[in-house]
Structures are given as structure tokens and as C-alpha cells.
Amino acid sequence: MANSADQNNTATGRSWGRRVMRALWWAFGIVTVVVIVFFILVYNGVVGYMPPVEELRNPQDKFASTILTADGVEMGRYFRNSGNRVYADLDEISPNVVNALIATEDARFLDHSGIDARAITRAIVKTLLMGNKNAGGGSTITQQLAKQLYTPPSDGLLSRAVQKPIEWMIAVKLERFYSKDEILKMYLNQFDFLYNAVGIKSAAKVYFNKDASDLTIEEAATLVGMVKNPSYFNPVRKPERTRDRRNVVLDQMYKADMISRAERDSLSALPLTLDFHRVDHKEGLAPYFREELRRYLTAHKPERANYRGWEDQSFIDDSIAWATNPLYGWIDKNPKADGTLYDIYSDGLKIYTTIDSRMQTYAEQAVSEHMRHLQNQFFREKRGSASAPYSSNPAELTAETRRKLIDNAVRQSERHRIDRAAGMSEDEIRAEFNKPVEMTVFSYNGPVDTVMTPMDSILYTKSFLRAGFMSMDPTTGFVKAYVGGPDFKFFQYDMVSKGRRQIGSTIKPFLYTYAMESDFTPCDQLLNSQPTFYDESGRPWSPRNSGHARIGEMVDLRWALTNSNNWISARLMAQLSPAELVKRMHSYGITNKLPAVLSLCLGPCEVSVKEMVTAYSAFANKGMRTDPMFVTAIADANGNIITDFTPNQTEVITEKGYYKILSMLLNVVDGGTGNRLRRAPYNLTAQMGGKTGTTNFNSDGWFMGFTPDLVSGVWVGGEERYIHFNSMAEGQGASMALPIYGKYISKVYADPSLPYDQSKRFTFPADINLCDGGFYGVEEPETAEEGLEGAFD
Q: ∠ CA(254), CA(260), CA(262), 5° rounding?
């Protein structure tokens, strides 16, 4: 009986065991089926998000648009926050980067099809079961790419657990559609290396200031080391930690037989060395130009309702630009084939500009060098003045007007706007403006961290003189250099295109050209004495003159323009028509409203540097005005040209008047107010014409200069016209503005890599009649003075 019971118990146990085993097998089978079905559903997008096949075949990459100079230098990019990504093909990436990435992130990358079962098993056993946090993850490079492309940030462990199988299936599909090289290329173009360095090409530029193809082994290891956690392994903020991580990558490369033991040991001993350049729209080459170019590209068709009441002139300027300039509003004017619009921040456009990087550098250097010197003079003059930086002349500026100017500056400040938006009263805001706070302010020795009241900072900022400079080819209109101010980070108002200031005597070439085309000659004479004229209301106008030479004598027009005589300009204007001069100035490309009065001949009108350079291009280009060109072509991300841009010229001076005015303007430099260019420190021998300009109280200093190859314009002055030198010696255009041109053109001529030399000459017809009474043979001169003196005898 006992044996029978034991046998029954044994049988029962075996039966129960078989049932358990069957249950386990059933459970395993069900789980397997469920898992398989789950992955099939995920693969087909039924569960979770699976990108459409078309999107997987053609991921929507967002690349920054690249701005290139005429000589092939990258001068900047347009991108949104965290979007500074520039496409790099695999042959543009150093093999060191690829080797480091594979060795560190996915040693079996070339062997698997998107999922590495061995790596997953290793990660589960070592990380989850053995608690080894340094065992490495199981994600392949393809899975990481899937995460970069399609996975949003997870909210926690559960959310991440759900995302993981979706990434696996996306990885499998990516492996179906792309080669290993294409996957590597996409991965390296996608990764965010911090500091607006998205993608390997941007990272190489930001951290090492070089192309991705030139990265060394240790540099590549540094960047690949960041892939694990860029914030934690930040080479700028955590250099020692990042160096250790770099050495881990080097060790992985050694283990994968990609470098030798000797290379690993020697490279691991090196310090972490960066050439860090933070990417910022406010830094880099030609920031004022880049911002104006961005404004042009993204402009919309002007509608009057979108402009404030005092923006009439802006509406006129923008309307003219929309109608005549294909670059202005380019995005709206050039939709894609599917009707959508280009996005300069994400479509990876290549914008080929006319700027020459060398000439732009020389222009920025010239502005900085001279403005530093000029600013020291200005500070010395204003030292101890209670009204500084404003004029101390009560006849020009009363204490009440000064108070209103400062009050207006406070109201227009960003701090005032923020305080007002926070609900503060005007009294509370004014109290805040008189409390010292920490701030960073501008100096020519670099930014200065200091403590001062916001009110003092306004006056401090106003104490810095401003400048605008532009240089272009007078025949093509290619803008070679563009400097809108002393420093874009602190002074963002563009004094080349946006700012308009009174032009003073630089208006006189327009008047004299008008006279030359109205049967006057350079040899015609007028009385050099102060005239008095009366307007329609009977009010007298007696222009002043800064010079005292040859008063009471009859002087010829050539001498008068050479010496910028105001009295002769006024007498000449009285014999001509102010309304006709306005019409002619508009034909030169000046769009602002101009007063048709006698005093227009002395330049009280406000014009921008860009307009003046455009106008003066006619004097260098046989009477043809050439409109400025910022861009020669725009291409898509694949390099296909979307739009080509061509020069636009308009005849504004007849041949009858052209050679007369040209000869007179050449004499301004050879023997007149521009003669400083012929002396030290410039000692220029190139044939060039030009004109200085100074407005009332020295508020504005101008110099316009041109050669057969380049036309350039310079303006220097205060933020407001009441901020200026008291002394004429320092405040005239020949002192404030001309040196910038002299420094710039000297640097240009000194560079043998540029196609400019001082032997180039203007050509005059063999028999040119510069004055009535006969023709004078003028051969191409050795100097302008030699060739033209005889024509006036």
C-alpha cells in the first residue's frame, strides 16, 4: 500500500511538473508571439510612431544657410537656436572621426543590420544584472541616428522603455534604405555638439577652427568623446574630464587596431587644446553686412499699413527696392517648385556674396584703428565738460534740449521697455535708472565688466563716435567691403544702409556736374566773395565759408571745387535750378526727399553711405551709375543655382560733362582738400578722385574716394548731431573720415593677392575740350597733375 501511494505521489508530481513545463512553454510561446506581433505592429506603424517610408528615404534635414565671400571664405551662417548645422559629405570628414566613432560607439557597426544582439545582451548582463554602469550601452550607431531623427525627449524610464523598440525598428528600416557610409554621414551631420555646433562640420569650426576633413586623431577623439554626453564632457567648461574621455576613445581605437600602442600613449599624454570660436550672429566677418543681407532676403512686399507714421521714407525706400532689386524679398519672389517658400535658417542655402574677405578685413581694421585714435581725441576734448558728450555751445544746444535728448534715450532703451512691461511707474523706472548695476560696456580694448547706473551707461555709450564705410567695384557694383559701425555687438544700428546724415560738401560734385552739362567749363570764373540771396519770402541767405584764400578775386570753378569753396557753389546754384539738381541727384540713386532750395548746394540733405557710394560710382565709371550688388548667386543645399544676379547700370552723366567733372575731382586729391592722401603716412601715388565733406558744427565728417577700380565712402560722427568735436581741426571730414579711406586703400594696394595696383589710370579722349576756346590734347598722364594741368591753361 505504501509503495502504491509513493508511486501515485510520484506520478502526480511528474504530471504537475509536465503541466508547469507546458505552461511555461505556452507562456514563452505566447510572449514570443506577442513580442513578434508587437514588433511587427511597431514596424508597420500600428503601435507607436513610425515615420512614413518617404520620410525615412528622405529625412527632413535642417541645415543652416552658409554665407560665402567672393574669394571662397565662409563669413557666417543663418540659423535658428540650436540649428547651426552645415552639411558635410563623408569625403569632407576626416577618417579619424569615422574610426573613433565606430571604435567607441559601435565596434560591430559594419557587421549588424541596425540591431546588435550581442551588444544588447552584454548591456543587460553587465549593466542591469551586474550593476556595472561603465559597461557601455547596447545602442548601435543606427539606433542612435533613429533617436536623433525621430525620438522626442522621454519623460522617464517607462517612456524610454516604450521608445526603445520603436528605435530598433526604425534602425532596421534605415539599414534597408541606406548604406553604412550614408548612415555614418547622417549621424555625424545630426549630432549637437553644443554652442550652436550642430554636426561635425560646425563642431570642427567651433572647437578647433578648422574644416572637418583636417581633424587630427586627438581632435576627432575629443569630439567623439562628447557623443556620450556633450554637457557632461564639455571641453570648454570641463577640460580635464573631457581629456579623460578623449583618452578612453583613443584606447578604444587602439583596441580596434585603428591606431598603434605608441600613438595611443603619445596622444593620450597631450593636453586638451582648443581653438574655440563661439558661433554668434554678432561676431565674425562683416556682421553689419550679414544683417542687412538677411533683411533683404526675408523682406516682404511693402504695405503702407505696416509702417508707422514717421516711416514714410522707409516705405519709399523699401518699395523702390522691391520693384528694382531682385535680392530684396528674394524668399517671397522665388518659391520652390511645390509652392512653399525657402527658409534661410533651415534649407541649407549657399549664398555667394560679393564681399572680399581680405578687403573686408582691411576695412574693419581701418575703421577700428582710426576710430580708436579719434575716440581718444574726443575724450580729451570733452574731459571736464558738464555737457559731455554733447556740445557745450549754448547757441547750438540748450540745457533743456539736452535733457529732452537724454530723456528720449531712456524711453527708447530696452531696460525701460522691460520695466514698463513689468508694470513699473515712470518714477519707479527713473529711480531704477539711477541705481548702480553690473554690466558689460564697450571699449576699444575689449568689453569691460563694470558697475554703473543705467543712466550713466547711456551717456557712456553716446560718447563713442560712430562710423560707416562701404567700398565697391564701380563697374560691376560688387560690394567689396561693408562696415556699418565700430562694433556690431554694442552698436547695431547700421550707418551704411540705415543711417542717413547730412552730406555737406560731398554734394558739390553733383552741382558741378550739373553745371558742366549746362555749358559751364572748369575754367569759367566767378567772384570769390560772400553773396547774399533772397528766397520767395524775402529772407536773406548769406552762406559762410571756412577758407580765406583769394577773397575778392575772380576764381575758376576748378579751383573752387578743389578747395571746396561755399561762396562759389552758392553763386553757381543761383545760376542753375535747385529743382533740377534735386531731379539729377535722384537719378544718381539718392531716394530721400530733397529740398529744392539754394542752400541745397551745401549739402544740408540727409543721405546714407550706400547711396553716396552708388552716386559716386558714376564718377569712376564714365558717367554710368552702378547699383550695389550684395550677392552674385544663391544655390540650394545640393549646390544647384537657384538665382543668378547681374549688375545694373544707368547713365546719369553725359560724355560732355563726364571728363570735365572727372578732371576736377582728380584735382581735389592732387591739390585740394583730399591732398592728405598724397602725404605721409599714406604717400599714395594712385590716380584717384574724391571729395571731403563737413557739416555745421562738425557734426558729420565725410570722405568719398574713387579710383578706376574702386569707389568708397566714409562717414564719421556722433550718434546725434549734437555730439561732435568743437575743433574744426579734428572735426572736419579730412580729419575724421579721410584717414579711414587712406588706411583701407593703402592696405588694399599693399596686398599682392588682390588685383589692384597704383599704376591704373583713367583714360581721357585724345582731344578733350575741358574749357571753351579750344581742344587740348591729353595723353595718359604719369600723374593726374601732369596730365590735366595743360588742359586748363
A: 115
Main-chain phi, psi angles of 483, to 5 degrees = -125, 110
Q: Which contacts qualify for 587-590: CB closer than 8 Å, 24 or more apart?
A: 587/625, 587/650, 587/652, 588/510, 588/614, 588/615, 588/618, 588/625, 588/652, 589/614, 589/615, 589/625, 589/627, 590/615
Q: Characterise 194 by phi-psi region: left (phi > 0), alpha (psi -120 to 50), beta (else).
A: left
* C-alpha torsion 223→229→230→235, nearest 10: -70
Given the C-alpha cell 571641453, which residue does it identify?
A: 235
Q: How far apart are CA 468 and CA 496, in angstroms?
A: 5
Q: How many CA atoms lie within 13 A of 59 on its CB side?
A: 22
pLDDT digit string, tens, across residues 89-109: 889 999 999 999 999 988 888
Q: Which three cell numbers stand for residue 789?
A: 594741368
Quick one: which of 460, 383, 481 has its CA closest to 745? 481
Query: Cα separations (Å) of 735 from 358, 378, 608, 674, 732?
Result: 25, 12, 20, 10, 5
State yes or no: pLDDT of 778 exceeds 50.
no
Q: Output the nine-digit C-alpha cell for 603.
A: 549739402
Nearest Cα to 723, choosing from 714, 708, 713, 736?
736
**3-state class (DSSP) for residue 63:** strand
State the average pLDDT over residues 414-438.
Answer: 93
Q: What's the pTM value of the predicted model, to 2 decimals?
A: 0.82
Task: Decide if 661 contacts 87 (C-beta within 8 A).
Answer: no
How far is the C-alpha of 347 from the C-alpha of 634, rounded, in Å?
12
Instruction: Decide if 689 contacts 670 (C-beta within 8 A).
Output: no
Q: How far is CA 661 from CA 628, 653, 757, 769, in A?
A: 22, 10, 24, 12
Cis peptide before 287 (omega within 30 of 0): no
Helix axes 95-105, 217-226, angle to 10 degrees: 40
Which residues in 637-659 are b (16+ Cβ under 10 Å) and which e? Answer: beeeeeeebeeebeebbeeebbb
Q: Give the whole-angstrom CA distance, residue 677 versus residue 672.
A: 10
> What band does 550 get if pLDDT is binned at 50, 70 and 90?
very high
pLDDT value, residue 58: 56
Q: Which of 453, 690, 413, 751 is nearest to 562 (CA)?
A: 690
* 58 CB burial (10 A radius; 0-12, 13-18, 19+): exposed
Residue 780 DSSP class: P
Listed in sequence order, the residues at least 6 apart from 433 whose beta carbon sits closer than 8 Å to its beta carbon are 410, 415, 416, 453, 454, 455
Is residue 625 a contact partner of residue 615, using CB atoms and an 8 Å limit?
yes
pLDDT digit string, tens, across residues 740-749: 999 999 999 9
Q: What is the pLDDT of residue 773?
A: 38
pLDDT at 783: 30
> Sorting pLDDT into bands at 50, 70 and 90, what band is 174?
confident
3-state secondary structure of 198: strand
